[in-house]
Design goal:
single chain, 32% helix, 3 domains, alpha/beta, binds flavin-adenine dinucleotide, 25% strand, seven-stranded mixed β-sheet, six-stranded parallel β-sheet, binds uridine-5'-diphosphate, Rossmann fold
Length: 399
């Protein structure tokens, strides 16, 4: 990979055909495809000191491979995205499992057959499970908000239990709101599962971890003669837009610009800041082989952090006597002070503000927005990859 720290004094944007802002999935996938399919010379500007965006992983002082920006587990039903990424990595067989700590009892999330029996006892849990099967069918995913609407005393009992013990307090910590105050698609990510599959992503056809880590996968994706990566460079220092033209280093740029950062930042927040949630991630290394039984434990009724992840479960790394864990504390994001906008907030007024920023970019020639930040969408890694593949298809077909 052609990686450079900072820009050289003689940096000349016109020696490139494409400028990509951001070296996460959105930027890296587009860069690779345009270099390969169009023979474009691509310059990536990344303000952090590394590639891979929020999927970045590295070895901490104890030698444990950890995820700097939160636990990342690849799972997808999108064959094309999976095949594209598989060019740059092998995958380990990891199947993510999450337990909820409900007053000291650890039960699978998504809430499933096993969780029902732990919550209601063997016999009653089994009867309630049979009722769920009769109502929804076996191996079905049922969003909690849908379950709550059922007018049946047994189903209401399950719904009330799950709402109170799995969703309410966790969601209050994560979003500062109750589940019914936020978009149903957010709770829908973690449905009640009417079945025995105790994986966090039940029925996901492809799921695993890049065998050498995410950063290594990105390094391979960006390892191409026509791609140059500049880290530690904030594109806002170079890029400006006016009268339908994108200027780079004060001159109109004739090539394509692919922007994967937040749109409000690009315009100096002049219509107002787009709201996000950020996370404080607190890492700790412990002198023990293993801290908890699975990759992630969600604290759904207690504590002021949402979850603890133990990375060795995720990566399969063998390292006796040491393990690293991380607690996530969620809070409101403060714009313009260098915090990380981790989660978009899917509410109509925010989407409307986003649309106003987005409308402004549509008048810019050869300027493209893609990614979780730039599209203001709650994308997983496969969704961003798919979106970047689509955008690059479009650019390639117009080339
Ligand atoms: P990013 O990864 O945010 O990359 C954008 C890059 O652009 C960043 O590196 C940023 O520094 C750079 N940038 C922005 N503005 C500028 C600028 N002005 N100049 C230069 N560079 C700039 N997905 C899953 O599929 N599975 C998971 O288990 C999972 N877990 C997650 C856990 C957490 C806590 C979070 C927050 C997300 C998780 N995701 C997960 C989602 C995943 O992180 C995203 O889908 C993916 O990283 C988005 O890629 P992206 O390229 O759009 O954005
Ligand atoms: N959620 C919850 N309890 C859980 C797991 C999830 O209340 O044990 C809710 C919570 O609002 C969370 C959302 O479901 O933000 C989506 O969860 P997911 O694990 O997909 O979130 P992410 O991994 O993106 O942080």
């Amino acid at each position: 990979m052609n990686l450079n720290a900072g820009l050289p004094d003689d940096f000349n944007p016109s020696s490139f055909d494409v400028i990509v802002v951001g070296a996460g999935y959105a930027g890296a996938v587009c860069a690779r495809r345009l270099a390969e399919a169009c023979g474009s010379k691509v310059c990536i500007l990344e303000r952090r000191g590394h590639v891979a965006g929020n999927a970045y992983d590295y070895r901490d002082e104890a030698g444990v491979l950890v995820h700097k920006y939160g636990p990342h587990i690849f799972h997808t039903a999108d064959e094309r995205a999976f095949q594209f990424l598989s060019r740059f990595t092998d995958w380990t067989e990891y199947q993510h499992k999450v337990l909820a700590d409900v007053h000291g009892t650890l039960m699978p999330v998504p809430f499933n057959h096993t969780s029902l029996k732990l919550a209601f006892g063997e016999e009653r849990g089994e009867r309630l499970f049979q009722k769920l099967v009769a109502t929804f069918g076996m191996d079905k995913k049922v969003p909690i908000m849908e379950l709550r609407e059922k007018n049946d005393p047994d189903l209401s009992e399950v719904a009330d239990y799950v709402y109170e013990n799995v969703f309410l307090h966790y969601t209050m910590k994560q979003w500062g709101k109750t589940p019914d105050q936020i978009d149903p698609s957010v709770m829908g990510r973690v449905p009640v599962f009417v079945g025995d599959d105790d994986r966090y992503f039940p029925l996901a056809p492809n799921q695993g971890m890049p065998a050498d880590g995410y950063t290594a996968m990105f390094e391979r994706m960006l390892d191409h003669d026509l791609i140059k990566v500049y880290v530690g460079v904030d594109a806002r220092d170079l890029l400006s837009t006016a009268d339908g033209v994108v200027n780079v280093c004060g001159r109109p740029f004739g090539g394509e610009v692919i922007y994967t950062g937040p749109l409000d930042e690009l315009y100096g927040f002049d219509l107002g800041a787009l709201p996000y949630r950020t996370l404080d991630m607190v890492f700790e290394t412990l002198d023990m082989d293993q801290f908890q039984p699975v990759g992630t434990v969600n604290y759904t009724v207690s504590e002021n952090f949402t979850r603890i992840t133990e990375f060795k479960h995720l990566t399969g790394q063998v390292l006796p006597g040491k393990t690293s864990i991380m607690r996530e504390y969620s809070r409101s994001y403060i714009p313009g002070v260098g915090e990380t906008p981790y989660y978009i907030i899917n509410e109509p007024e925010n989407l409307e503000l986003y649309r106003r920023y987005r409308d402004r970019t549509s008048g810019l020639v050869n300027f493209h927005v893609v990614g979780r930040l730039a599209e203001y969408r709650y994308y997983d890694m496969d969704g961003v990859t798919a979106s970047a593949l689509e955008l690059s298809d479009e650019i390639i077909s117009n080339h």
